[in-house]
Amino acid sequence: MALYSEKVMEHFRNPRNVGVIEDANGIGEVGNAKCGDIMKMYLKIEDDIIQDVKFETFGCGSAIASSSMATELIKGKPVAEAEKLTNQAVAEALDGLPAYKMHCSVLAEEAIHAALEDWRSREKSE
Amino acid sequence: MIYADNAATTKMSQAALDTMVSVIQGNYGNPSSLYSIGQQAKETLEEARAAVAGVIGAEPREILFTSGGSEADNQAIRSAAEIGRKAGKKHIVSTAFEHHAVLHTLEKLQKEGFEVTLLDVHEDGIVRPEEVEAAIREDTCLVTVMYANNEIGTIQPIREIGGICRKHGVLFHTDAVQAVGHIPIHVAEDRIDLLSASAHKFHGPKGVGFLYVRKGIRLTNLIEGGAQERGKRAGTENVPGIAAMATALKEAAERMKENAAKASLRRDRLIQGLGAIPHSALNGDAKQRLPGNVNFCFEGIEGESLLLLLDDKGIEASSGSACTSGSLDPSHVLLAIGRVHDVAHGSLRLSIEADLTEEDADYIIRSVTEVVEYLRSFSPIWRDLESGKKPHIL
Q: What is the DSSP letter of B218?
């Protein structure tokens, strides 16, 4: 039995939306190096639509795959929809994660929410 | 495929496999039975005992066969603790980077009222004999220090520690699981009282090992039942496994010098090549280490990702990252030598054998360099380090 599903390995080997958005208007970073996982999400939001999303991740295979999948799930979607992203949705889209790796999908959800929050606070201050 | 995880387990040697199959097929008797095939099995068992004893400088009656290294560690420590308890001595000296078979047994003993001193292993991963001596008290009943560390491969000053323990009349146990069959060991000259070993670390089968117990030391049973192993380990003996272990150990001993020379040549090549990766560091002393052990930390990356991508390139290795240990903390060994969490997550252990070619070594160096660079390219930690937001540690 493999450690991860084919889908997880596929996203781990070919992660989508990797990198940085220089003119991002929402950035969220969660996790800490002590526990071995850090995710950073960059959003470019225009007219309440997520025009672009990129990520950087320090972490295990499932952390990288979860980041990749989370970006796919919200790219091009309205903010209202992205706000409803759950870790279960990320895990399901990856055809499941081992129980002790579920926290990776939680981290992906939190990273997206942190980036959306950052965007909202920037909107307010403008 | 390049298998570089021999510290986890080894492939059985052909000779050991042949022995095992032939015993299973033609020598299936119970050594406790009095008829011919039983006695034939008994003979095989005792031949194996003599062979194992011969390799480490012991007498055959000082070898107790077990299910492996963990059982041997448990029984050795439990027995020494029991001897201590009877004498009113309830203090044990060990080190911070022992195998969990030792550490968890010690934790249990602590709950039973024993006091345990875990010695520092310093940045080089080597215990200082004088610190062992300083830690020994009137009520110390046991010193247990591993022969060579399973993760970073550092070889401990066992002979000096053995001498100190003998001088103070304290029992000395060593978990030699990584050392037996790889480096020379002589229990009498090393002043060892109890020694644990496991067959599958030296090309023998899994599920079998042994405990060396110096004559006169009373063992406590972990398993009660029949009178096998001089009444100290019940259960019908694993004759095929034990015979195969003896074959593997004899073979390892015969080729030890040659194998160690070859493996350490490749080891040093790997250490040099991987050391060229920016912000990397070798874990443990460069010279006083097992011939086949290479262990590095790479800043800004996580070990499990590294292992998965190396696996894709046909390289099988291991890591001390939290994700590979199933807990939130990285390897206790790396923490014990002073690596901080951030860095300890990005570790790689390569445990090679003498058959690794120079081309293989160079391929490993190229592959690890590539993968580390790739993972750093989208690591937020690496970005912070490179932009100067955080200082480099390595």
A: P
- pTM higher than the cut 0.80: yes
Strand partners, B116: B92
Q: pLDDT tens-digit profile of B114-133?
A: 999 999 999 999 999 999 99
DSSP string covering B278-314: TTEEE-S-SSSB-TTEEEEEETT--HHHHHHHHHHTT
Across the interface, which of B309, B312, B345 has its CB nearest the CB of A36? B345
Which chain A residues are Cβ-neighbours of B371 within 8 angstroms?
none
Chain B residues with a Cβ under 8 Å from any Cβ in chain A: 300-305, 308-309, 312, 321-323, 326, 328, 330, 341-342, 345, 378-383
A58 vs B302: CB contact, 8 Å cut-off?
yes
User: In terms of DSSP bridges, do strands A26-32 and B115-119 run parallel, antiparallel, or are they unpaired?
Assistant: unpaired
b (16+ CB within 10 A) / e for B2-13 = bbbbbbeebebb
Over the stretch B282-301, which tens digit does the pLDDT of each residue have? 999 999 999 999 999 999 99
What ipTM was estimated for this complex? 0.96
For this structure, is A104 an active site residue? yes
